[in-house]
Amino acid sequence: MTKTLQFARFRDLALLPAIVVLMIVGALVDPVFLSADNLTNVLQQRTELSLLVLGQALVLISGKIDLSLESTIGLAPALALGLIIPASAHGLGVELPEWTAIPLCLLIGVVIGAFNGFLILKLQLSAFIVTLGMLTVLRGLQIGFTEGQNLFEVPLSFTYLGSARWFGLPASVLICLVAFAIGIVALAYFRQGRSIYAIGGNAEAARAAGIRTERVLWTVLIIASLLAALAGLLMTGRLGSVGPAQGQGMIFTVFAAAVIGGVSLDHGKGTLFGALTGVLALGLIENILTLGGVSPHWIQAIYGAIILIALLLARFTSGKAQD
Amino acid sequence: MQRRRILSLISGIALLGTVAACGGGATGGAQIGVDYPRADSDFWNSYIKYTPQFAKELDVRLMSPTNSQNDVAKLVANVQAMTSQGAKAIVMAPQDTGAIATTLAQLEQKKVPVVTVDTRPDKGKAYMVVRADNKAYGEKACRYLGEKLGNKGKVVEFQGALSSINGRDRSEAFASCMKQNYPGITIFEEPTDWLDTKAAAALQTRLTQHPDINGIYMQAGGVYLAATLQVLRSAGKLFPAGDPRHITIVSNDGIPQEFESIRKGEIDATVSQPADAYAKWALYYAKAAIEGRTFKPGPTDHDSTIIEVGNGLLEDQLPAPLVTKDNVDDPKLWGNQIGK
Questions:
Q1: ipTM, 2 decimals?
Q2: Which residues of A touch B159 (CB under 8 A)?
């Protein structure tokens, strides 16, 4: 146990040298980079991604996979809004009171996670295929009932969390920090949290050791979907509307951030802190490219190349083979 | 020439068929297949709404339209299905203008004429391309911003995907017009792939780097409008037109929400992409193709010009009006007709 723990710690910090290098490069590109405003912006722009990565990291560590998160981030806020705005604004015509929107949004996340869990755990279907199917169904539902329209009429209470500032920082950043802190503590010190590693490492052994694997996995899937719904709420607040494509294609970035941060696709390995460094590294790279005014035609190639360099840096500073 | 004869022969036979079958109804019963490129943007949703409406008006028999969800592979499959169901002409809007070439060649072999809407195929034959002059979008935006800002200041430009012809055309026209006429303005080109999240992040970063930014050009209001306003609002930089701190914003698309923002003074102008005219003239040309009519380059009877864009390909370049506070209430704009 201690050995895995140490190994995990090591992977944790693997990306830090790369982040330090990025900070230096950023400062050289433009002095504005290191200003509090700019760094706050980077954090705020990454809040939704970081919540998805948090959810996905939990799911990956437990040995499953959830692709549907990128659709939940769009459907949960869209459906919640659909239930409260009038039909003339592309709502469903139910017109529930405004205060129900946020609880509904989170509840929709829980329901989606529970349904994923039902298909994967009770009906014993492959998590990859189930969530791939759900990814398509959920996106389709959103486009179906909104008729592909952007939902512009978002009540102020719904945009509050995504756009407010608490103690000088965007509220969404603080929410993410708290979420990660809870996750890190739970995974390091609590029995239920540790059991996620055990299940991911060897589900049979975990069951034999008395862990209620099914219940833990179900909870993990629900938490991941709930986090995606919360991310959808924050994104709606930051962007001021729910687009029909909200979150589309995001799952690739989620995996990129998680894997760069040392979460293994190979079950039971990785840490949430590592995943968080992955999110930060991607955010810093994009910010530096924008500040540097890189040619629009070359930005993708350079973005990809920098990710590879960051991985190389992590590989040689940690001295560990990656998988 | 031979193609034309065969076309009229086909439509003649089809006409006889309908007369025999149902006692003569719409246009000779020659069915027209329409593929919608996507159903997740306000602009294309309006196009989808207008299509059956104009089909009725033009007396065209429409097959049930398909939706290729922005995926060229789906478009190819849809087109094949429609031709085997007996489509005599196809209206499509290939968003990937390169990958459609083989399909166009196959359709040419089958003598099924194609009208492309919004985009022009890079290669292959089409009977007619119905498209707004996207270069004019970039140019109109440039002229408006250039004059408003008096040839000085800093402008952020949200570029659409550079892999699409419309994103390229708008970006190139905007860049060359600015360089030539308003060299005093600094342009920040932000690649956004038609994604609001990328635009919001870029704008936020750029405003921190250059707090004196005084102009924004967004290549698609349907995508970037809400996000831009939200970023400006939280940065405390959203002032109505007329205020000296106001950031001049020009958009492209012409959706109702943009008009609303123009009325409120949040943004200044947009170029109205003619969703209604797209639907109308696409069906018009599809019908004309079945009837075997031909067209020549030159001005048309509907305020547009047909130009030859090379390879014998004709393109009807529909006008796209600039909408400002002065004409935002014009009932002829499609953005004002929607939902009425």
A1: 0.74
A2: 296
Q: Within this chain, do residues B109 and B201 fall inside the same structural domain, yes or no? A: no
Closest partner residue to B45 (CB to CB) among A42, A149, A238 is: A149
How wide is the angle at C-alpha A193 spanned by C-alphas A190 and A197, nearest 5°?
A: 130
pLDDT at B2 over 60: no
What gap in Å lies between CA A186 and CA A182, rounded to an integer? 6
Give the confidence band of A321 by pLDDT, cuts at 50, 70, 90: low
Residue B5 has pLDDT above 70, yes or no: no
Residue A43's identity, in one-letter code, is L
Could you tell me what percent of chain A has a pLDDT over 90?
57
Distance from CA of B38 to the nearest CA of A (A): 9
**Mutant choice from A38, A88, A149 vs B, greatest count of B C-beta within 10 A:** A149
Torsion (CA) B165, B167, B168, B173 in degrees, nearest 10: 120
User: Mean pLDDT across the stretch A18-28?
Assistant: 91
Asked if residue B172 and residue B72 are part of one domain, the reply reads no
**Residue A149 contacts B, CB cutoff 8 Å:** yes
Contacts with A37 from chain B: Cβ below 8 Å: 208
Token pair belonging to A254: 């989620």
Q: How many domains does chain A have?
A: 1
Shared domain for B242 and B150, answered yes or no, is: yes
Residues in chain B closer than 8 A to A30 (CB atoms) = 209
Residues B116-168: tens digit of each pLDDT = 999 888 888 899 999 988 899 999 999 999 999 999 999 999 998 887 788 88
CB contact under 8 A, A299 and B191: yes
Tens-place pLDDT, residues A38-78: 999 899 989 999 999 999 999 999 999 999 999 999 999 99
CATH of the domain at B267: 3.40.50.2300
Q: Give the list of residues 6+ apart from residue B302 with CB closer than 8 angstroms, or none.
A: B277, B281, B318
For residues B9-32, average pLDDT? 50
B174 within some domain = yes
User: What is the bridge-based pairing of β-strands A165-166 and A169-170?
Assistant: antiparallel
Residue B243 placed within a domain: yes
Cα-only R_g, chain B: 21
> Is the Cβ pair B201, A290 closer than 8 Å?
yes
Residue B282 lies in a domain: yes
Looking at the structure of chain B, the number of domains it has is: 2
| Interchain CB contacts (distance < 8 Å): A and B | 88
User: Taking CB atoms and an 8 Å cutoff, what residues of chain B touch A169?
Assistant: none
Fill in the amino acid letter for B215: G
Residue A323 falls inside a structural domain = no
Of residues A45, A244, A293, nearest to B201 (C-beta)? A45
Task: Quote the domain boundaries for residue A50.
Answer: 2-318
Residue B23 resides in a domain: yes
Pairing of strands B89-92, B114-117: parallel
**Residue B268 and residue B140 share a domain:** yes
Look up the domain containing B138 and give its range. 134-272
